[in-house]
Structures are given as structure tokens and as C-alpha cells.
Design goal:
265 residues; alpha/beta; Rossmann fold; 7-stranded parallel β-sheet; 14% strand
Length: 265
């Protein structure tokens, strides 16, 4: 066990959805903590932009196009990472989509699209990660083959009105976390999650900034404000680090106390 339990320096970490929002903050935070980061998303422009941001920190990072619903695209991103760095020590799976729409009006095709990205994409990315990690030698410092961190949601635990497809997909993410943690511990692979509270990003900004929904969410949060994406970096680093060597199958809720509040007055 390393002297610095939270040391992720030299680890190779692939971040999906790593070009914007929560994924971007975690990618940059891990890079600043000494990891070799590969950030990816479907947008070529965003991939180029995060590559420049990472290069401005140092030369030990890269970016790659990745469509989490496409097995070939995901495999290519992992192959790219292994070819450059020799292994993949950690994966943060942050790619996702959301749409607010009354359930009686939502087309089945739209429900399927959200499930495909958020739930099927989680399985595809985790399976690809597991296949790579299982075959690589244990890390010289930690003795484990890899750590996977999936981004869940408050919607994994509670209902937020008119985002049923998103809530269904994120509830399923908890099942993937628990199931794979149970299966893959034998290979030296840990699988955990982070459930963010209310964090304004490009994914949800129109739903919560300057809206009655946003005002309610802020009022229901004991800390009285929305979170900043950078406030999720610490939880990610913990789960990727030796400090979490016996943490497996769990999801850390980072929400300013939102889920604890029943009656606030």
C-alpha cells in the first residue's frame, strides 16, 4: 500500500463524456493530480478542445472520439489508450443524456434512445474496461488491475418529475455497479459509482437555471446552492485511489445533503 493513499499519479484513466460538464471536471482534476488522462466524447470539436486543455497542463494526456452506444467505437478508444500507455488503470464513465417530457407524451423511440446511451452505454463501456483490466498485470503500487467509476444520479434513488427515461436508466446503473463489483472483484477490479446532486451542466442547465424547478431544487438542498462540477473530483480520486482499495459496489452521493432532507423547517 502506498504511503499516500490518495495518490493516482502515473495511473492511466479513461474518461467517457470527458469533454464537458462533470466528465470534463473529473478529467482535468485527475490530470492535475498526476494521472495520465484520456478524455473522450462523440463531438470532434469538443475532443480537440479538451486535448488542448490537457496539453496545457502537461504532455502526458490525450483525447479520443468515443460513442458509448457503439461497441466498435468503445473498443477502439480502449485500444488507443492501451497502445499509448500500455494499460488502463481507471475508467470514469460520465457520458449521458437527459430529456424532460411528460411520460404520457414521450415517444417510445425517445425512451429507447435515453436508455441506449445511459444504460446500455454503461454496460458497453464497463464490459470493455473489464476485458482490458482482467488481462493486464496488477498495478505495481496497488496490486489491483483496475477501478471503474460510473456516474449515477439522484434519480437513481428518488423521483424527479417528467424525466422517467433518465431515472430508469440511472436506476439501472446502480444494478450494473453492484453486479459487476460482485463478479469482478475476483479479477482485482473494483466497480463503484458517484451520484451527483444538482450540478448545472450543458446537460441540464435549461431545466434548472432560472426555473421554478431549479428554485425548488436549490431550496431543498440543505447547503442552499447548486454544486460545482469540480466538487465531484475528490470523490472520483478517492474511488480511483488506493484509499478505496476495500470500497467495492458502492455509490457515493454528492448532493449537498439533498437526499437527506424531508422537512427543512
Amino acid at each position: 500500500m502506498p504511503d499516500n493513499l490518495f495518490d493516482i499519479s502515473g495511473k492511466v484513466i479513461l474518461v467517457t463524456g470527458g469533454t464537458s460538464g462533470i466528465g470534463r471536471a473529473i478529467a482535468l482534476g485527475c490530470a492535475k493530480s498526476g494521472a495520465n488522462v484520456v478524455a473522450g466524447s462523440t463531438s470532434p470539436d469538443k475532443v480537440a478542445a479538451i486535448k488542448q486543455e490537457l496539453d496545457n497542463l502537461d504532455s502526458g494526456h490525450d483525447a479520443v472520439a468515443i460513442n458509448v452506444t457503439d461497441e466498435a467505437s468503445v473498443k477502439a478508444a480502449f485500444d488507443f489508450t492501451v497502445k499509448r500507455y500500455g494499460r488502463v488503470d481507471g475508467v470514469v464513465h460520465s457520458a449521458g443524456v437527459i430529456k424532460r417530457q411528460p411520460s404520457l407524451e414521450m415517444p417510445v423511440e425517445e425512451f429507447r434512445r435515453i436508455i441506449d446511451v445511459n444504460l446500455n452505454g454503461t454496460f458497453i463501456v464497463n464490459q470493455a474496461a473489464g476485458r482490458v483490466m482482467k488481462e493486464q498485470p496488477p498495478h505495481e503500487k496497488t496490486g489491483e488491475r483496475g477501478s471503474i467509476v460510473n456516474i449515477a444520479s439522484l434519480n437513481s434513488y428518488i423521483s424527479l418529475t417528467e424525466v422517467l427515461a433518465y431515472a430508469s436508466s440511472k436506476s439501472g446503473v446502480l444494478g450494473i455497479i453492484r453486479g459487476l463489483a460482485n463478479e469482478w472483484a475476483q479479477y482485482g477490479i473494483r466497480v463503484n459509482g458517484i451520484a451527483p446532486g444538482v450540478f448545472p451542466t450543458d446537460l441540464n442547465r435549461k431545466l434548472i437555471e432560472g426555473t421554478p424547478r431549479g428554485a425548488f431544487l436549490k431550496a431543498h438542498t440543505p447547503q442552499g446552492r447548486f454544486g460545482m462540477a469540480e466538487e465531484l473530483v475528490g470523490a472520483a480520486i478517492y474511488l480511483l485511489s488506493p484509499a478505496a482499495s476495500y470500497t467495492n459496489g458502492h455509490t457515493i452521493i454528492v448532493d449537498g445533503g439533498f437526499i437527506t432532507r424531508g422537512v427543512g423547517v
